[in-house]
TrEMBL record:
<dbReference type="GO" id="GO:0072330">
    <property type="term" value="P:monocarboxylic acid biosynthetic process"/>
</dbReference>
<feature type="domain" description="Carrier">
    <location>
        <begin position="3"/>
        <end position="78"/>
    </location>
</feature>
<dbReference type="InterPro" id="IPR009081">
    <property type="entry name" value="PP-bd_ACP"/>
</dbReference>
<dbReference type="GO" id="GO:0031177">
    <property type="term" value="F:phosphopantetheine binding"/>
</dbReference>
<dbReference type="GO" id="GO:0044550">
    <property type="term" value="P:secondary metabolite biosynthetic process"/>
</dbReference>
<feature type="compositionally biased region" description="Basic residues">
    <location>
        <begin position="96"/>
        <end position="111"/>
    </location>
</feature>
<protein>
    <submittedName>
        <fullName>Peptide synthase</fullName>
    </submittedName>
</protein>
<dbReference type="GO" id="GO:0043041">
    <property type="term" value="P:amino acid activation for nonribosomal peptide biosynthetic process"/>
</dbReference>
<dbReference type="InterPro" id="IPR036736">
    <property type="entry name" value="ACP-like_sf"/>
</dbReference>
<keyword id="KW-0596">Phosphopantetheine</keyword>
<dbReference type="InterPro" id="IPR020806">
    <property type="entry name" value="PKS_PP-bd"/>
</dbReference>
<dbReference type="GO" id="GO:0005737">
    <property type="term" value="C:cytoplasm"/>
</dbReference>
<feature type="region of interest" description="Disordered">
    <location>
        <begin position="78"/>
        <end position="111"/>
    </location>
</feature>
<keyword id="KW-0597">Phosphoprotein</keyword>
<dbReference type="Pfam" id="PF00550">
    <property type="entry name" value="PP-binding"/>
</dbReference>
Length: 111
């Protein structure tokens, strides 16, 4: 298990620990495998937006399901680098509902 190393990783980990009521979290532990669900993601989303003064969407939160991936998203936002779209392997882990959300988001981007 890799422990949070950066300030961003530590902040995200603290939020997840609070919402999921778990004591230890590795930066590569998937949110939903830690007991997270859609309602807990909404709570995390709200806290993350506040902590980072961010306009990250709920759909984006689902696309970056580990502390490492979410931290990379915020690092790139901070440095204005383009955010890399989620990898195909990550997409394969999405449930049918999450896939529909992602497809809608991609469709809306094209419009």
């Amino acid at each position: 298990m890799l422990v949070p190393r950066t300030e961003i990783e530590r902040t995200i980990a603290t939020i997840w620990q609070e919402v999921l009521k778990v004591e230890t979290i590795g930066i590569n532990d998937p949110f939903f495998e830690l007991g997270g669900h859609s309602l807990s993601m909404v709570r995390v989303h709200s806290k993350v937006r506040e902590a980072f003064s961010s306009d990250i969407s709920l759909v984006e939160m689902f696309q970056y399901p580990t502390i490492s991936e979410l931290s990379t998203y915020f690092e790139r936002q901070k440095s204005k680098q383009p955010v890399v779209e989620p990898s195909e392997s990550r997409n394969e882990r999405l449930t049918a509902g999450k896939k529909r959300l992602q497809q809608r988001r991609q469709k809306n981007k094209k419009s």
